[in-house]
Amino acid sequence: MTARLRLWSGLVLFLYATLHLINHTLLLGSLRLANEGLVFFAALWRNPLGTALLYGALLTHVALTLWSLFRRRRLRLARWEWVQLVLGGMILPVGMAHFVATRGGHDLLGIDADYLFVLLSAGQDWPSLLQQFGLVLIVWVHGCIGLHAWFRLKPWYRRWLPVLFGTAVALPALALAGATVGVREVAAFAADRDRLAEALRAIRVEPEHAAIIYALSDTLKGVVAALLVATLAARPLRDFWERRRGVVRLVYSADRVVAVPAGPSVLEISRSAGIPHASVCGGRGRCSTCRTRIGGPDRNRLPEPAPAEAKVLARIGAPPNVRLACQLRPPPGEYHVTPLMAATAGPSEAWRRSPGHGSERFIAVLFADIRGFTTLSEGRLPFDVVFVVNRYFRAMGSAIEAAGGQVDKFIGDGVMALFGVNGDPGPAARQALDAARRMSLALKELNETLSADLELRLRIGIGIHAGTAIVAEMGYGQAQSLTAIGDMVNTASRLESMTKELACELVVSHDLVERAGTTLRDAPRHEIDVRGRSGRLTVYAIADAANLPAMLS
To answer: Which domains does the chain have, with CATH numbers?
Structure first.
């Protein structure tokens, strides 16, 4: 809830700043045009609802920022977080006089502040001018960094990034250009003292107002500074209180154990100990890259995930022993911690929806390999070999996907495919048989297409088996992908090798045929020994997998 309030309050303030900059660009037309736009802007934000929304968002955002600073155990931040934090801390000191003069002047002193009033004070000297122009950039860059940190976890963001970046650069540039034009127009207007005095009386500006505005601005700056000092001073008191609550021991490995007072999150403990730990969203609970497997003797003492954390964990299909390190604040006890993502994980890993972390499920696995590939490639140019292999992979991959499976990987000239991973495992066996039939037909068509280029026709061996396997995201970095491991996967690979001994195109296990709810009446049946597996396995040898429909009943 705290993170959501901070996000939504920031969005309200960013909307206010965006409309403000759009109004500034009207100064490129004329001072009168910008003041007419200001009437709409004021009507939007100076009514009771707009005022409550704006002031509420400002107070909420400042309060939650101080709260976040108080809760942080170590100020070890990424560069972009430091830039955003420093810029955010500069907004109130730099912009306080402007805020008080415009909003405070209207609400407390009855001033109808317009661009003449604002730009007249900005154009009095260079420090005032730089302060006003600098405020625009500080607010805008601070907000854009926050939006980037939020949006980069969205799959659509990369497509729209050029448009958003162009807008982020163009809008403040146009606003600053408009402000420059406006300052010059106001300077020319101010040359006529009588006309200027009449204009100031029209917006109800009195000579004593300047002193009141600056005094109120200085007072509010003092309040903000006092709150910041109080927040920093309270951090040692928090540490003292947490030490009395007990100690959390996190065991990362046999030689890496971290013991700290209870209170910080697992992510904060990792970072404070110098242990690399992924967190694309900066610990805000928006991504899943900090996900961690939790074990140990006191694991059952952990609090249940909050709704926001539970939503992210459900999205990635995490088992009960996986938590988000940035959201988990373990009570005193000993816990075994295993980060599940590489420390270099990026936004693409945050989007990935995996079916589980090492979940067991019933699937069908297919292995296929080109027969006599060494003979086929001898004496050919590398370009020719790559051309043929890529055409083969394209044909086999299309056949597998058309049957409802997914290609796991290409291994040399071989293919591994999975069936039943992302859906109901029931049809997985029939899908695998259908894929073998489609692959055989696709290979015949490919041989006809390449008949002028190949002296020998392409031949394949296919092995299919079904059973329970461990399915998970495995690998490292960019090489991480969804795959399956287990005894049944090894068995499927062995069946593919058996096609050489049995002189056939397809070897399929009786377990898979039975699971498919069919029989292979005319196919030769064999009892074989599979290396690495105890007991004999019943299989069927099909000379031509394209004939599978005639055998199924």
So the answer is: 2-238 (1.20.1300), 247-351 (3.10.20.30), 359-551 (3.30.70.1230)
